[in-house]
Specification:
It contains five helices and no strands. By secondary structure, it is mostly helical. Helix 1 runs antiparallel to helix 5.
Length: 152
């Protein structure tokens, strides 16, 4: 297939050999590591485990799983738009904000009938999602390039 500019346009659906979902899962896990580290260092993981009534060692694993799933959605839904090497960090950061709004700020608060965290731990949770999104957007094009396979 010739390399025409239209085929590289943002939003064009990637083919199966480009593996955007796999890139999103891997990127979600890698980007989730600094986010979970921030939550651990700040003590927000302890607050989250008490709010969720789960063992403290299970919460980081569940957080990484949720961020891996969010990364898969990032790769699949946004397709080639997620591959912007110049502005991907900003696109990813806005996606991190969206994940925070849909997850801890809305869904978990509705399920728990109370905020997941308040005060400084809530700010750290918000910051962790922004760091996750920024890292997700920055690394996605690089990880996606590594996973692509040539058709011969």
């Amino acid at each position: 297939m010739p390399d025409i500019p239209f085929m590289r346009a943002h939003g064009h659906v990637p083919g199966p050999t480009q593996r955007p979902t796999a890139a999103g899962i891997i990127d979600g896990i890698v980007a989730g590591i600094p986010a979970v580290a921030l939550l651990w260092i700040s003590g927000a993981l302890d607050v989250m485990s008490r709010s969720l009534k789960l063992p403290e060692l299970l919460v980081p694993e569940l957080q990484l799983l949720a961020l891996a799933i969010a990364g898969a959605f990032y790769g699949r839904v946004f397709g080639r738009a997620a591959n912007d090497r110049d502005g991907g960090w900003l696109f990813g950061m806005s996606y991190g904000f969206l994940v925070w709004m849909l997850g801890p700020a809305t869904l978990l608060q509705w399920v728990l009938r109370a905020p997941l965290a308040v005060g400084r731990p809530a700010l750290m949770l918000f910051g962790a999602h922004l760091i996750y999104g920024m890292t997700l957007g920055f690394l996605f094009p690089h990880i996606h390039t590594l996973l692509q396979r040539d058709l011969e």
